UniProtKB/TrEMBL annotation, chains A, B:
<protein>
    <recommendedName>
        <fullName>Phenol 2-monooxygenase</fullName>
    </recommendedName>
</protein>
<comment type="similarity">
    <text>Belongs to the PheA/TfdB FAD monooxygenase family.</text>
</comment>
<dbReference type="InterPro" id="IPR012941">
    <property type="entry name" value="Phe_hydrox_C_dim_dom"/>
</dbReference>
<feature type="compositionally biased region" description="Polar residues">
    <location>
        <begin position="165"/>
        <end position="178"/>
    </location>
</feature>
<dbReference type="Pfam" id="PF07976">
    <property type="entry name" value="Phe_hydrox_dim"/>
</dbReference>
<dbReference type="InterPro" id="IPR036188">
    <property type="entry name" value="FAD/NAD-bd_sf"/>
</dbReference>
<feature type="region of interest" description="Disordered">
    <location>
        <begin position="162"/>
        <end position="183"/>
    </location>
</feature>
<dbReference type="InterPro" id="IPR038220">
    <property type="entry name" value="PHOX_C_sf"/>
</dbReference>
<keyword id="KW-0560">Oxidoreductase</keyword>
<keyword id="KW-0285">Flavoprotein</keyword>
<keyword id="KW-0274">FAD</keyword>
<dbReference type="GO" id="GO:0016709">
    <property type="term" value="F:oxidoreductase activity, acting on paired donors, with incorporation or reduction of molecular oxygen, NAD(P)H as one donor, and incorporation of one atom of oxygen"/>
</dbReference>
<feature type="domain" description="Phenol hydroxylase-like C-terminal dimerisation">
    <location>
        <begin position="451"/>
        <end position="653"/>
    </location>
</feature>
<dbReference type="InterPro" id="IPR036249">
    <property type="entry name" value="Thioredoxin-like_sf"/>
</dbReference>
<dbReference type="InterPro" id="IPR002938">
    <property type="entry name" value="FAD-bd"/>
</dbReference>
<feature type="domain" description="FAD-binding">
    <location>
        <begin position="15"/>
        <end position="408"/>
    </location>
</feature>
<dbReference type="Pfam" id="PF01494">
    <property type="entry name" value="FAD_binding_3"/>
</dbReference>
Length: 661, 661
């Protein structure tokens, strides 16, 4: 008997990609081998860019409200007598790089926001206790848009199998030993074991075959998907072992609610990450050498041992706790996957293709941003609005980020784990000035807003595509008519970087908005027309003729938009002008910039103005973007908020004419 | 057989009071005669102060996110040729009076926020389809704290009875006639009818007797509770009839997303209130005279008729719609209840004691603020932290507000309903300048932040208590030791008004907060110590001795706090100092200002500083409050956020020593 099977466009195992599919209307299944949701304690810093992405999905406000906000980093170092003292204060988030600042929140809440969003926009459900048992891929069908080249046998686990007995206790006393290392990277992966058991128990109806057009594996450092594809993580494991304690601290250390990096003379380092609900996370170094040296018996690590290390480092300040929410230990490894996809059909993301120290606060952020980068591309190909060539940019863009991350993490870990130099002659010690400089530089990197994707079919910037990415060929051939945007028309908007935010007012109701709030993650491309000073007749004329060309029946706007869909459903046009709001009327603008919809009248949420608000000051958006207030420009923004092209107001069609989308 | 009965501390029928009880841990039942929640269309403006109150309960962010924000009022008047034109723009909310601005949101959502809050903090449920059938009150037990002087027989309705067939359709075509007047104030109240039916159907187990210590009746303009008490609404009904349409407008009127007041030469007036989800509410005048004149057959009012009136007023602009969410018509009456309570045991609130025009955007706001004023007082008496004398301040404070509201509404309605004057000689016409002035003045009133409660046992300000209130005697006798606060120590914080907001930073983690965010509605009194410049030794000494006196075993703080409760559970101390944050440590402050809790360590959320933030500028709080940056002062804040006393730092005990609390 042939096995039953079902078809699905995308098979994935994490929520960010699922959320994209939900917003883009793609047929998707999400499977997770675990029977339960996130465990206690697993918390993460959310960088500025991650919060911006959350906002584009509509739930940054929930994270912002529930999280702990980190404002300042305090550096503590030994003074000349060896006593730790606060040597520096640095802002945790560099001022003015984003409308958000870095915060910390339990992963369970973040998962909840994604699940609520999935529920709101789709009927995608996470199927828990389901894991892939075998994967076959028909390479010959890679380029066939109608084919389902991926076949996966899914094993459904029993509840018992999906919820192993070793589950993390939510409140451990300081003497509990066994649970903290469960699911630490120092414990063995249990996927194969789970699978073996399930196969042995094999009951009818617990296995099914799914054929998929695309598959995304974000299945962790031991990635089953990666192993099936035969891809490797390149790089190495260090001997640094760190303990983690999530506690409500009882301490006289004055900066316990700040993010702190504490270096003691001889007793190691502690990083303090204040969390929500009075919790504080402590990262404590348990070994002091990068390679070899005094080996620690890892299986003996206990919370008590971790606490004692912290106490030594933080002396003479006292620290203890009555409530411990979670603890673990891990070993730092810094590795990057050799390949991020198989024929742009099966993709790897997150820990499956890069592992690094959690202390840089990057873990969840970079992983989520991988699938944030990938999700809309797959959706656009499936929806027929883009061709498959854009999928190559996933590896080009994200593998490069992973490489940069690992380089940063390597340097940072070495500085953090090292012993402070006694003086300038102490060559094996770490210079605290160098550490501070690295921390500050790391802050910009860690914010996520510095991400700068290279030239490609999706980013019309100058230079060599392979060099700017990870080496993958994503260039537009000369014959294809490569176009290069004009970066000097918007000196603070960078092609390849995310569209920055600034406050503008809605022309129709004078409400101030951070313009980024309008760049929703719903799969749409955007054209932002900086219309300039429309009170000047010649400029007004430029806008009128742009309107005429956009609304022409043969315009790219009509070409890309299915006949039965609203004109703004594939490419949305926003206008930001710089004339006085009170001297301008919405109806002064061409109708295509405020399109009429049946039953709803004109669209009042498309035209904005760079003017003073009543209650929230002046955004000064043109200045902030480096755009000429009289002449303006046009900017094309990808569905993920990254800038694809900048050019003259009337040239925007050229970009869409040639760029594959 | 004697009827079974149950005891309850408070019996109420609206959510604001219930929310207070939930937050103060009071045994409460909430009954509502309706079987369902709020109907489509019932939307309301939320004033600044209402949003501040929502924030004190923890859900202003939800209202802020979902609502439509109104930023600007546009006045449209006939020009010399009789064509309407925009004559003025005024900010809808006066800048800098609050951290919120007026917004508009469907009542059903607001109800949802309250219900979610009730669920989070208590097990209070709204019992729907339940209405009181009889009320008896034993006046002789009024002053006995243990007595249940109120006995109410509650009738449980069947689902059919509680959900009358006449239910408002959510999507009415413009030809539907019958439903819009359902529950308009032009339809008869159906309480008695419901009751009659239920009695006739009388089944076993559908009736119960409840004995209560307190009862709050917010049962609308036809208030059953008020009728049982024999109290009257004083004032009169006008002949002004207004129609209301909630539509998605299709119009070329340029200000449809602004709040507009449109006066035409001869065709009446329209008020435009833009709402959420693309909806716009239009208030349209259907009659043109205050008394007598051409009578309209009210039962014939249809949405088509209302639309046609709007079209006449708004010509030459065109307006129509395909989607109507709701419509109604109402007659303006301006009346105030003679009494707001029976022996300070049974209270009336909201429409039960004041009715007025909805156009001022005051309806729900003033009603909610009635019970916001009342709820904590009842809870404090029941919890034993206040004596019953404070309950008299409810009528004194809120009846005065109702009187002021009706006076304002009377003037505003006349100006709004009248015909614009043709010129200065046109004596029966309305001066548009006068209208604009009234609108601007009305804006401050309508914001809710101008509320200024008179001198009383709860407000230690100078002057005659009866004169400043509604005439009720709420003064502190000279023998009782009346104290008067020192208003000159904080020139922008006013006794009797709500504590204003401004940004400060948390000393422990540098996070910026609007200080008002910490004034949670949880029943606690607050002492805000403006500690001044604590880097000056003499000032530091003042703070240290305040700390010593507050933590003395016989201090008022210990006297008011039950032995088994945390020291901040009845009165919470917040400190705002003006020294440099980075040169000050949390541990510089007396422990009573950052109390130690077992298992949790010290409290990091009690000491704030008036200093520059990294990302949100400088709040300049001392300047904003008019407090001397060196010397500071103390301010006592009531549980509802209103200022009770201002004085020297060290004198705060005096206020608590004598004031009844």
């Amino acid at each position: 008997m042939a096995p039953d099977y079902s078809n699905v466009d995308v098979l994935i195992d994490r929520l960010m990609a699922a959320t994209w599919m939900a917003r883009c209307g793609i047929d998707t299944r999400v499977v997770d081998k675990r029977g339960t949701k996130i465990y206690a304690g697993q918390a993460d810093g959310l960088q500025c860019r991650t919060l911006e992405i959350f906002d584009s999905f509509g739930f940054a406000d929930r994270a912002w409200k529930e999280s702990n906000h980190m404002l300042e980093i305090c550096l503590w170092n030994p003074d000349s007598e060896g006593k730790i003292r606060r040597s520096d204060r640095i802002p945790d988030t560099i001022p003015n790089i984003s409308r958000f600042q870095q915060v910390v929140l339990h992963q369970g809440r973040i998962e909840r926001f994604f699940l609520d969003s999935l529920k709101k926009y789709s009927d995608i459900k996470v199927e828990r206790g389901v894991l892939p048992q075998s994967l076959t891929f028909d390479e010959s069908k890679s380029e066939d848009p109608d084919a389902y080249p991926i076949e996966v046998v899914l094993q459904h686990l029993t509840e018992e199998e999906a919820n192993p007995a070793q589950r993390q206790a939510t409140n451990v006393s300081s003497n509990t030993k066994s649970d903290g290392l469960f699911r630490s990277n120092m414990a063995a992966d249990d996927t194969d074991e789970l699978l073996d058991k399930a196969v042995k128990n094999g009951r009818a109806g617990t296995r099914e075959t799914v054929r998929a057009k695309y598959m995304i594996g974000c299945d962790g450092a031991h990635s089953w998907t990666r192993r099936q594809l035969g891809y490797k993580l390149e790089g190495e494991q260090t001997d640094y072992i760190w303990g983690v304690l999530d506690i409500i601290p009882i301490t006289d250390f004055p900066d316990i609610r700040m993010r702190c990096a504490i270096h003691s003379v001889n007793s190691g380092s502690v990083m303090v990450i204040p969390r929500e609900n009075k919790l504080v996370r402590l990262y404590i170094q348990m070994t002091t050498t990068e390679k070899g040296g005094n080996k620690l018996d890892r299986t003996n690590i206990t919370p008590q041992m971790i606490l004692e290390s912290a106490q030594k480092t933080m002396a003479p300040y006292k620290i203890t706790y009555e409530y411990c929410d979670w603890w673990t230990a891990y070993q730092i490894g810094q590795r990057v996957g050799s390949n991020f996809s198989k024929n742009e059909r099966i993709f790897l993301a997150g820990d499956a293709v890069h592992t690094h120290s959690p202390k840089a606060g990057q873990g969840m952020n970079v992983s989520m941003q991988d699938t944030y980068n990938l999700g809309w591309k797959i959706a656009a190909v499936l929806n027929g609005t883009s061709n498959r060539s854009i999928l190559k940019t996933y590896q080009s863009e994200r593998r490069r980020i992973a490489q940069d991350l690992i380089a940063f993490d390597h340097k940072f870990s070495r500085l953090f784990s090292g012993r402070p130099a006694k003086d300038v002659m102490d060559e094996t010690g770490i210079s605290m000035q160098e550490f501070k400089d690295a921390f500050e530089k790391g802050n910009l990197f860690a914010s996520g807003v510095a991400v700068d994707y290279g030239a490609s079919i999706l980013v019309a910037k100058d230079g060599d595509a392979a060099e700017q990415g990870d080496g993958t060929d994503v260039s537009v051939s000369k014959e294809g008519g490569r176009i290069i945007g004009k970066s000097d028309l918007a000196t603070n908007i960078k092609m390849g970087m995310r569209f920055p935010s600034f406050q503008v007012l809605n022309q129709a109701d004078a409400r101030p908005w951070q313009f980024q709030e309008w760049l929703k993650s719903d799969g749409r491309w955007r054209i932002v027309v900086f219309a300039g000073n429309v009170s000047v007749p010649t400029q007004k004329k430029r806008i009128d003729s742009l309107g005429a060309s956009l609304s022409a029946p043969d315009s790219f706007l009509h070409r890309f938009t299915p006949k039965d869909k609203p004109i703004d459903s594939v490419i949305e046009i926003f206008t930001i002008h710089s004339a006085k709001r009170a001297e301008t009327e919405l109806f002064d603008f061409p109708e295509i910039m405020r399109p009429f919809k049946k039953g709803e009248g004109w669209d009042y949420w498309k035209v904005f103005v760079d003017d003073v608000s009543y209650h929230e000051g002046y955004g000064d958006a043109y200045k902030g973007c480096g755009v000429d207030k009289e002449k303006g420009c046009s900017v094309v923004v990808r569905p993920d908020g990254y800038v694809g092209w900048i050019g003259e107001i009337e040239n925007v069609g050229k970009c869409f004419g040639t760029n594959g989308n």
